[in-house]
Specification:
The longest helix is centred in the N-terminal third of the chain and has 15 residues. Helices cover 30% and strands 38% of the residues. By secondary structure, the protein is α/β, with parallel strands linked by helices. The protein folds into 2 domains: 164 residues, Vaccinia Virus protein VP39 (Rossmann fold), CATH 3.40.50.150; 50 residues, S-adenosyl-L-methionine-dependent methyltransferases (N-terminal domain of TfIIb), CATH 2.20.25. Strands 3-2-1-4-5-11-10 form a 7-stranded mixed beta sheet.
Length: 229
């Protein structure tokens, strides 16, 4: 069983971070890679706020799953099909599966193989699995560090440290509840660096191609993988 990190606070602060433009560029990369293939059904694993599902459902029969109830609530309000469940509970099969936005980096090394085996189980024969992960540069030079955002009635602080293959991100949100009183919410999420060798070793799928991506910097901060059953 894959452990569930609590991403509900992240779901709440995501609109404050301002990554929408970068992720729209990532969505387009995925759409371009999917387009040459004969695909009718797609599962978006770790669908988050549902923004990529909005693109997918224009061309495919698409649905998503996510471990955060808050993320699923946000996604379904946008009119997409999303459910709060583990990949292991999915009984349907799909022509393609995507895990976009470093979903695999939320898995520990000992969870990665089980996840990839489940991906193979849920895919139809000849089906595609496309995912991206943070590179070492992405962890050390892009995501590590601190940022803060002040909207007057909301103040967000994020502190991230990368050490020994693990990115630890502490999030603190203050929200005004009237007068000089604020409500404080705090949480921590972990992400794990996986190199190419580990990912390709742990999956029963065949590797078709990889693609270097420069999303948040001038150097390669993400790597994308295309696998086929």
């Amino acid at each position: 069983m894959i452990e569930t990190q609590n991403l509900d606070l992240y779901a709440k602060i995501e609109p404050l971070i301002g990554f929408d433009e970068a992720y729209e560029a990532l969505y387009q990369i995925y759409l371009d890679l999917l387009s040459p293939y004969d695909i009718k059904t797609i599962l978006d694993v770790g669908c988050g706020n549902g923004n990529f599902l909005l693109h997918l459902q224009k061309q495919y029969e698409a649905e998503g799953i996510d471990l955060s109830p808050r993320m699923v609530e946000i996604a379904t309000k946008k009119g997409v099909k999303a459910t709060n469940r583990q990949l292991s509970s999915v009984k349907e099969n799909f022509d393609a599966i995507v895990a976009i936005g470093d979903v695999l980096n939320y898995l520990r090394h000992d969870e990665l193989k089980d996840f990839l085996v489940e991906i193979e189980r849920v895919l139809n024969g000849g089906g595609l699995f496309i995912c991206d992960v943070n590179t070492l540069h992405g962890f050390e030079e892009v995501t590590a560090g601190s940022m803060s955002v002040d909207f007057g009635d909301q103040f967000l602080s994020i502190d991230s440290e990368y050490l020994d293959g693990i990115l630890t991100t502490e999030m603190t949100l203050f929200e005004s509840i009237g007068g000089e009183c604020y409500k404080k919410e705090q949480d921590m999420i972990l992400q794990f660096y996986h190199d190419n060798t580990l990912i390709t070793k742990e999956t029963p799928l065949a590797l078709l191609a990889t693609k270097d991506i420069t999303l948040f910097s001038d150097d390669v901060d993400k790597q994308l993988f295309i696998f086929q059953k």
